[in-house]
Design goal:
With 290 residues, the protein is of the alpha/beta class. The chain is 44% helix and 19% strand. Helix 9 crosses helix 10. The longest helix is centred in the C-terminal third of the chain and has 23 residues.
């Protein structure tokens, strides 16, 4: 093999899984791989193990070996990178690549969405966050974690729905079909809701969002109010990014499609489809270290 060959690795490390892609100098995809969760919340060593496993699988698919990885420049998008000490701990680990650069998974998604150029994104899934690269400066809006932040997210929608269900149980507001369904799920017993709440994660709350969206589509007044407020929160993230200089924005995440009809017209007019994914964004990062 030509010892001057150069490859570029892009990694999208998230809380539910890690994906990796290897391309050659011409940008041709050579191989892709997957592994388990890669977020600093599960531990630096554990996240790095997932990154290496995904990269190794991608290399195998590309017909590359360890020596080839040593000639590979890596860009790594990683969830939880903003946690104190995370970047320093990662950089202290042995490096099997020619070079490696880390960035948050959201920032990698933003680079991918706009082909490495200036632009912004709002991600809305279990959580929510606004990210942009504006005049070369990285900008972040929200995304500080549920329940103190992540407005408009699936977790936030689920929380708001349970709050309304409890109010309906007390007779403080009218019980709609959505609220009745949620109360039935917990045997119409607030203590069951409290017991669930004591152990529930953001992901658990987000599992309620599809039911809220379904009832909103059927005209349920409580559901519509919750979804409208969620969309208002997403609009707010977008408008903040616009005010800070973004001229194009992409809406990403599992709830981007379901919430799109609820997005305000002035925001929707400035939306654009993503050019690429977070792995392609991480590859732009890898290339920038040439």
């Amino acid at each position: 093999m030509n010892t001057e060959a150069r490859y570029f690795l892009g990694v999208d490390g998230g809380g539910t899984g890690c994906r990796a892609r290897i391309v050659d100098a011409a940008g041709r995809i050579l191989g892709e791989g997957k592994a388990g969760p890669a977020t600093t919340r599960i531990g630096i060593a554990e996240a790095w193990d997932s990154i290496r496993q995904a990269a190794s699988t991608a290399a195998t698919g590309a017909g590359l070996g360890p020596d080839d990885l040593a000639r590979t420049q890596a860009g790594i998008g990683l969830a939880g990178l903003s946690r104190r000490g995370a970047l320093e701990a990662l950089n202290a680990l042995p490096n099997p690549f020619r070079s490696r650069r880390f960035i948050s998974d959201a920032a990698a998604a933003c680079l991918g969405a706009h082909s490495g150029q200036d632009g912004a994104i709002v991600i809305v899934g279990t959580g929510s966050i606004g990210v942009g690269f504006l005049a070369g400066i990285h900008v972040r809006v929200g995304g500080y974690g549920f329940p103190v932040s992540d407005e408009g997210s699936g977790a936030d929608i689920g929380l708001k729905a349970l709050q309304q269900a409890l109010r309906a149980h007390d007779g403080r507001i009218e019980e709609t079909p959505l609220l009745a369904a949620l109360l039935e799920r917990f045997n119409r017993d607030p203590m069951d809701i409290i017991g669930w709440m004591d152990k529930a994660t953001a992901t658990d709350y987000a599992t309620l969002a599809p039911e809220v969206l379904a009832h909103a589509g059927q005209g349920d007044a409580a559901a519509r109010a919750i979804i409208r407020k969620a969309a208002d929160a997403i609009d707010g993230l977008a408008r903040t990014l616009f005010a800070r200089g973004a001229d194009r924005l992409t809406l990403l995440g599992g709830l981007a499609g379901p919430l799109d009809p609820w997005i305000a017209p002035d925001v929707r007019r400035r939306l654009k489809p993503a050019d690429g994914d977070a792995m392609s964004g991480a590859i732009f990062l890898a290339r920038s270290s040439v």
